[in-house]
Structures are given as structure tokens and as C-alpha cells.
Amino acid sequence: MGYPMARNLLRAGHDVALWSHRTEKARKLAAAENGRFCETPRQVAAHADCMFLCVGDTEMSREVILGEDAISQDARPGSVVADASTISPSVSRKIARRCEPRVWIFWTLRAPVPPPAPRAGP
Known about the structure:
This protein is an alpha/beta fold. The protein has helices at 3-11, 23-33, 41-47, 58-66, 71-74, 89-99, and strands spanning 17-18, 36-37, 50-53, 80-83, 105-108. Strand 1 (17-18), helix 2 and strand 2 form a beta-alpha-beta unit. The two termini are 29 Å apart.
């Protein structure tokens, strides 16, 4: 999940477990906004009923959801995983099928987040 989105959830009073490929980003946000820093996606799953992710590519998405120390390792029954990453639709369907036996819900959002516009100024 993007830094600004996670920050807004924290500022709205939600309990947010944070993980990022860039560890320092998640650690910094957790400290600044009273979030829960997690070392792995698996730790996020242990603390969350609903997980959002938006990573760079298909392989990253698969790794975060199904890999070693992934969400799938500790997601509780009834958990929701919403993937807003721009990934292969066929792989997304395969990931969803692998999630079904674990009795948790996997959504692929067909609303990719564009990169931020360049800022004007010095």
C-alpha cells in the first residue's frame, strides 16, 4: 500500500500494520504516525483482517502473497487481500485459486495507481 494511503488511514485512527520492500520507509511511517512496523508480509497478516498491497510487478505480488514469509503463511480465515498492483491477469487468477483453500478472500483491483505527477518548482 502506498505511503500516503497508509498515512491517511493512520491519521484517521485505524490500526495499520506496515511492511515495505524499503524497510526504512515502513519503519519511518510507523514511528511518525503510531503504526505497527512489520519485518515481513507474514507479520502483517498476523495483525490484519484486511490487507492492501500495491507492488511493482507480477513476481513481487506473487512473492508477497504466496512466497516465503508471505501473507498466505499467517492470513486468518475470512481475511481480505486486495491487490492493486499492475500485474498479469492470468497470474492474478492463479493467485486467487491458491488463496481459496485457505478460506480467505483475494481481490485484484482493476484500478492501477499511476505514478505521481512531477512537481513544479526549484
